[in-house]
């Protein structure tokens, strides 16, 4: 197909969806407020959108879209940003425990490790509906870091962040670390620092059974959900620029709009998609990988001692079997444990 033909089809399809999702193109409100969660059943606070877009379901159910939903602008065709040498290389762990340092002493004086995550990433971080506590693979990894720094895994205090708020929260020191399925890449490394990789995922596609979608090529002219502030949007638009992308605040929102027929597919890391699929037996993950997604623990760029402490904790988890036990507890749905990722260091 010619470039003009693809562009014309994309414009026409976008116009149809824009009409069906009336009001969404006007944008969304402010990001979710950061709220604390220490096992309480009180939900995270959110800030209402000034526009509060509500749109009819394209399939005719008149179900409202999630607050903050927006149709992503069409890709510009700009080349991918220049890559750095090895974004996953981190600082070596302390060889003999954790010394005194401003970053570590600040956390010790407070008596708790403030951890940013969300509660919409089933299997990785979610609120248990019975106990009200935050559970999942990421939550348990964070508790182990608190154990090594403060002597007690229960001294991890969780603050709820949207995907778009993760980097700003680190830069503004609203949290000490972010353990929230954050993909390590060169662009983010310019803004914050990262631990070694603690989990490796692959971006794929989630659809309803019988959808006729088998891979990324089938997404041309289709509506696809992803989360604002995630790397999934960029990778998806590069792989299939004719896809019409709806961004929402959380992955649980993507599950809702897929089930309601407001989108045809969801694209994200297979680890997150597995968490969504576990909640609906009529959903399936399809297609080859769009991109590797190495997860690292985000840390403020000016806290190298905290980076080394976190890496020491991750190394301990690799060596004593803790990582594999956490994997088996939460991620068995992905298959047998592949073992923890091999760390790479820059010094």
Automatic annotation (TrEMBL):
Pfam annotation, one family: SBP_bac_3
Cellular component terms (Gene Ontology): extracellular region; outer membrane-bounded periplasmic space
Domain Solute-binding protein family 3/N-terminal: 112-334
SUPFAM superfamilies attached to this UniProt entry: Periplasmic binding protein-like II
InterPro entries, A to Z: Bact_solute-bind_prot3 (IPR051455), Solute-binding_3/MltF_N (IPR001638)
Region (Disordered): 32-103
Signal peptide: 1-29
Biased composition (Low complexity): 40-56
Top-level taxon of origin: Bacteria
Family matches, as Gene3D superfamilies: Periplasmic binding protein-like II
Protein name per its UniProtKB record: Polar amino acid transport system substrate-binding protein
Organism name: Rhodococcus tukisamuensis
């Amino acid at each position: 197909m010619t470039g003009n033909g693809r562009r014309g089809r994309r414009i026409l399809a976008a116009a149809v969806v824009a009409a069906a999702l009336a009001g969404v193109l006007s944008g969304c409100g402010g990001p979710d407020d950061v709220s604390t969660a220490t096992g309480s059943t009180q939900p995270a606070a959110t800030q209402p959108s000034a526009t509060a877009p509500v749109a009819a379901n394209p399939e005719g159910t008149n179900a409202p879209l999630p607050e903050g939903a927006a149709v992503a602008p069409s890709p510009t065709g700009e080349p991918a940003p220049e890559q750095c040498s090895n974004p996953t290389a981190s600082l070596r762990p302390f060889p003999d425990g954790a010394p005194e340092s401003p970053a570590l002493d600040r956390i010790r004086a407070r008596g708790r490790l403030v951890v940013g995550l969300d509660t919409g990433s089933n299997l990785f971080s979610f609120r248990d509906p019975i106990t009200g506590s935050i559970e999942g693979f990421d939550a348990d990894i964070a508790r182990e870091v608190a154990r090594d720094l403060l002597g007690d895994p229960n001294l991890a205090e969780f603050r709820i962040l949207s995907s778009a708020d993760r980097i700003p929260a680190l830069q503004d020191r609203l949290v000490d670390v972010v353990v929230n399925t954050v993909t390590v890449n060169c662009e983010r490394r310019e803004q914050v620092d990262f631990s070694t990789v603690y989990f490796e995922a692959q971006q794929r596609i989630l659809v309803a059974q019988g959808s006729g979608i088998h891979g990324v090529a089938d997404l041309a002219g289709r509506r696809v959900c992803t989360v604002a502030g995630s790397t999934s949007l960029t990778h998806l638009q590069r792989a299939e620029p004719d896809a019409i992308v709806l961004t929402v605040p959380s992955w649980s929102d993507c599950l809702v709009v897929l089930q309601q027929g407001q989108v045809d597919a969801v694209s994200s890391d297979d680890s997150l998609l597995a968490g969504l699929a576990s909640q609906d037996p009529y959903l399936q993950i399809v297609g080859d990988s769009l991109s590797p997604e190495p997860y690292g623990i985000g840390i403020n760029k000016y806290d190298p001692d905290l980076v080394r402490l976190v890496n020491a904790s991750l190394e301990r988890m690799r060596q004593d079997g803790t990582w594999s036990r956490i994997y088996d507890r939460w991620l068995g749905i992905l298959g047998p444990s592949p073992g923890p990722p091999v760390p790479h260091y820059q010094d």
